[in-house]
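Dear U.,

For the methods section draft, I wanted the exact inputs and outputs in one place so we can describe them consistently. I've listed the two proteins in the order they'll appear in the manuscript figures. Please don't edit the token lines directly; just add comments below if something needs changing.

First protein:
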Amino acid sequence: MTRVLILCTHNSARSQMAEALTREAARKAGVDLEVYSAGTEATCVKDDARTVIAELGLSLDTHTSKTLFDVPEPQNFDYVVTVCDSAAEACPVYPGKTTRRHYPFVDPSGGSLDRWRAVRDQLQTQFEAFVAALKNGHRVPDSYTDSPAVTVA
């Protein structure tokens, strides 16, 4: 099983949405992934994140904001993906087997639901491409701009 950690600053929005979207993409693609999200500090999962994920038929109801120390085996991930610049700078060093990727997304906090939806849709495109690459035995995209718009069937 491939282990994936999605890391952001507060684990309240982008990383939470990315976790749910990655799990769903993996489920649809039949890819065996163990997906977690965490923050460099914990706060709470934002209601707007819950709202826009629910619009896709997914739920963040059982999600809580957590730090890296709250996830099982925090130094044992195949992929660590940071989704904000601050987390990329604060991300700890991982052993050689861990592949790191940085996919920076705009923080939708304080914006309209349309802004939240736009970030959600960008996350969905990115992490579907990530899962599709794993499914097809390809290198996962290095950056957001390297990711083709891919729908995982």
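Second protein (the one for the lower panel):
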Amino acid sequence: MPFTKSAGSALICALLAFALSDSAFAQRQTERSRQKATAEKQRAGIQQRLEAIKRDIARTESEKEDAADELAASEAAISDANRALRDLAEEQDATSTRLHELSTEGERLGQTIVNQKKQLSELLREHYVAGNEDRIKLLLSGDNPNRINRDLQMMAYVSQAQARLLASLRANLAQVEANRDKVENAQLELQEIAAEQRQQKDLLEQEKAKRAALLQNLSTRLVDQRKQVDRLQRDEQRLGGLVDRLTRLIREQAEAEQRRQAALAAAKAKAEAEERARALARAKAAAEKAERERIARQNAKPGVKPEPEPEPPRIVEQPRPAEKPTAPPPPEVTLAPAAPSGAFASLRGRLSAPVSGTIAARFGARRGEGPTWKGMFIRAAEGTEIRAVGAGRVVHADWMRGFGNLIIIDHGGEYLSIYGNNSALLKRPGDMVRAGDPIASAGNTGGNEESGLYFELRHRGKAFDPASWVKF
């Protein structure tokens, strides 16, 4: 049966179909789901530490009823939903970009495979037209040896070209398989994101309606409580207690990490010293052996081969039992930022404002008949982005009586920045942030009557005036 180009194409198509026959994808967990589950486990450890701090503060809390407390669950849920929607939008953009790149790569691979199929068909056709002679027939033909050698070399070249082309084709088929797997994973992730977005939007609308109804019912009580001096003092004490506990925890973790690093350095230095001692001992033994052999050669009689000196018994070093680490184990939750202790202090006077708005209250000003302001209140429309004034790590992101949705960032050197009354918190405890990163949205949570941001700076737990640090 003569070989035709169409037959060659059919053969390659059959090979392609066989290679992709197992490419049907079963339902499976996406890579996004696996990463999300891992991140949630890590956050659970951080949240466990912070919940313990909240319980300590609650045990010292004398006031059991506050109108703002009835808003807590709803305001926290609104914050969570807004953060989830923002995270999902970012994921959606990144996944869509990745899907576009995969589609482009898939088209390129498809065109490459088409070209390779065509080349392979041409090689097979030319091989058939040339007579389809095999090497045994050629060797037994009795033809001119030069011609036989030339034909054998030509056949070898053709075979090598076919082998290279087939190897490349197999590699590209494997890439097509991997590409299709990634494409389907990205598509499934987009479906997951869309479903989660629908759920979060529904939840957000429900919680907003619930909060609006609560505000209407609690309006009189909230107004009355805002005028209570002792309530303002308790709010300040509550925040101060939280800051003190966080500062102590961060300091303890930093000291533990220093001890651990010192122990590791000492263990490494000890191991290096022991290795140097063993190397010196081996070098000394080798030098002594060489000296004994030299003396033996000098003392040997002419014509008499000296008896080989017996080698001293080899000492096999037994593995030493592993020493118990002297350093404390690393903390389960690391809240201290990976930043030099003096980095934040060096930025004094050059920090960017956390939000664009009007300063309604300044540090040190009297709050009616109550205590003085420990920070600043900046009026801003609800939903306005709140940005980190400096790089650091989020050590608190939760609702707190008197301050609503509150986020605290540790900048190293025992400097903290505090952002309160937010409608949404966009970061979680443990997240690293850079200067200027969006971390929250302005609001009036915690029973505040105006929308905006309550902002503080603290060093070693003590509040100080942000005006000389931040460019408002």
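Candidate sentences for the figure legend, describing the second protein: The longest helix spans residues 145-226. Helices lie at 5-19, 31-59, 69-129, 135-139, 145-226, 229-299.

Thanks,
Y.
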